[in-house]
Design a protein that fits this description.
alpha/beta, Udp-n-acetylmuramoylalanyl-d-glutamate--2,6- Diaminopimelate Ligase, Chain: A, domain 1, 2 domains, 5-stranded mixed beta sheet, 3-stranded antiparallel beta sheet, 6 helices, 18% strand, elongated
């Protein structure tokens, strides 16, 4: 199994409202759809400031990442939470007598903890992603990226925090705008409110009563609400 080297561094009950995203590719207002509050490995790989390199795609590029965990534990599972980006420099692997077994255990524990993406720092223990870890990632379906020697793990963590903060700010701004728009049309009746909410979210929206009967919907004539 070949190894991969990082590139050189460059310095309530009652009435309720339900909604569902439109799935026909023609959202009522696509730019206003609620932004997700998470980061993906694909975003980080596309960031030129990080210079991360994809080593193995285990179908985790678009999985939500909610934070960063740095570990040098040979069996890190108990210290991880789901959807962590797990970073390691491989000290645990350098000290292992059987590197293939150690890599298999490490990758399995990361995957079992609910994490789909791991980043390997190519320094100081290994100049490149070691073959045993690449093989273990391939076997477990773990997405693996390499972190260049010039990039401290804290820089990755800070970037993830920045992206999460930006997503939260956008979500809050959208919620504020929706509230303001709904208040402005409230006097026009519930149908106007439902249509306005649907337009802002880019989604189908329905107002249902306690019997779960649709009493107002947007679009009003969509047959799906009858089911």
């Amino acid at each position: 199994m070949s190894t991969r080297r990082s590139p050189p561094c460059e310095r309530a009950r009652g009435h309720g409202v339900s909604s569902s995203s439109t799935d026909n590719g023609a959202d009522a207002n696509p730019s206003a759809k609620v932004p997700p509050v998470h980061v993906t490995a694909a975003q980080l790989l596309a960031d030129p400031r990080l210079q991360l390199t994809l080593v193995h795609d285990g179908a985790g590029l678009d999985r939500p990442l909610d934070g960063v965990a740095v570990t040098e534990q040979p069996a890190p599972g108990r210290w991880l939470t789901a959807d962590d980006l797990v970073l390691t420099s491989g000290m645990w692997l350098a000290e292992a007598g059987d590197q293939r077994a150690a890599a298999a255990t490490w990758a399995a524990e990361v995957k079992d903890a609910g994490s789909a993406v791991a980043g390997f720092g190519c320094a100081p223990w290994f100049p490149e992603v070691p073959a045993p870890l690449l093989d273990a990632a391939t076997r477990t379906g773990l997405t693996l990226v390499s972190v260049p020697p010039c990039l401290p793990f804290v820089a990755v963590s800070r970037r993830v925090s920045e992206l999460l903060a930006t997503a939260r700010t956008r979500q809050t701004a959208l919620a504020t705008r929706i509230q303001q728009r709904l208040a402005s049309v409230a006097r026009q009746g519930r149908q106007a409110v439902i249509e306005s909410l649907g337009s802002e979210l880019g989604a189908y929206v329905a107002l249902v009563d306690r019997a779960e009967t649709v009493v107002a919907a947007s679009p009003a004539s969509d047959g799906d609400w009858a089911r």
